[in-house]
Amino acid sequence: MKQVKLGLRENWKQFSLLVLINAFVGGMVGLERSILPKLAEEEFALAAKTAILSFIIVFGVVKALSNYFAGSLANRMGRKNLLVIGWIMAIPIPFLLIYAPNWNWVILANVFLGINQGLAWSSTVVMKIDLVGDKQRGLAMGINESAGYLAVALFAFLSGYLANQFGLRPYPFYLGIVLVILGLLGSYFFIQDTRQHVIQEEQRSRIPRLNNIFLETTWKNRNLGSVTQAGLINNLNDGMVWGILPILLASKNFRLQEIGLITAIYPAVWGLGQLLTGKMSDKFCKKDMLFVGMLLQGIALMLLIWADTSFEFMGISALLGWGTAMVYPTFLATLAENTHPLDRAKSMGIFRLWRDLGYAIGALMTGILADYFGILFAIIFIGLLTCLSAIIIKIRMRCGEGDSVKIWDWIVGKEVKSTCAHSHLIVQPLGKLAF
């Protein structure tokens, strides 16, 4: 067996390549982020919010199922093979969007996009966790998700800019052709499988195997179940923001370029913030990170109903992005920490199944509520649901990370003993955390 070492520094070349590949994956979603609702109204004359958001519903369901199968097949087929298959499934997407004569072609494009995201993004996530071992998972996930969502933001802005300058089609989607070529060739020729890293970690892991991976990841396990419900609600509100925010901004007479900028701030802060919050989740109690992050999201969503100026919307988008940045790498780091290496890929696939079903549930729920009760009612309802998710985390989850530090104790500089720690920690006061 080839000798391998675990760690970010030891595997920085492969890790960096996977970060770049995941940026291409995120870019594929960003292409649609700011212009597809506008395309539905202007070129295909769709008026009902449920119809407009149908592409998100389809995307969410297909991505969720792809995540599940990616988790189940990762150990058997190999991570790299799944990554390459994910990019092959992306080939039709830009062409379907460029030449679509009706909305059904857009729906079909999002079927392929869901498969691409489910297989490719899941593969890069699991491969990075395989590479770094158990000490830097939060940082690894922060870097991974940061690259993906910064790319979402960048390509949301670029597609909005091109649409504003040259029209909704075809120029914005030419970017997709470039992304597919780079992602497919890079994955096939430069990425190496991480199977040996899994074997290496398995030999020293003390985490017990899960008896029923599906049930324990879904709800039965206190930590895994808390993460799963929060992941679903997180993507549920993201599905609403994706579909409703451009429509809300258009109703307030914002130009397409302004809509592109405001909608890009949210994933930009989400992406950049994870460079910090990923490392924070290695230091702090993950329960605290998740509770605060979900609560901030709920508050930001409800603030949308009072916003009127572009400055206000940009501030709320930034707050929403920060709340999401606090939870996203923490979700994945918590899952990795609470699962045996041989269970990890499947457990993560189950988590991502429920999390990305949130896109479909959120878009469907938002469309129905917006059509019957108005956009503002839908926003308030989803905001309250997000706050409820934070409360569930506060009540049900436990700090079980060994030497993790509670956020409040760190701020006040108290001496604390973690739930599972074997020794006391002298917590550094605010401003002295060594990153």
What is the domain tally?
A: 1
Which homologous superfamily in CATH is the superfamily? MFS general substrate transporter like domains
Structure classification:
mainly alpha
The CATH topology assignment is Growth Hormone, Chain: A
Characterise the protein shown here.
The protein is an all-alpha fold and 435 residues long. It has a single domain (12-407), classed as MFS general substrate transporter like domains (Growth Hormone, Chain: A, Up-down Bundle). Helices cover 77% and strands 1% of the residues. It contains 18 helices and 2 strands. α5 (79-88) runs antiparallel to α9, α8 packs antiparallel against α13 and α8 (137-166) packs antiparallel against α15.
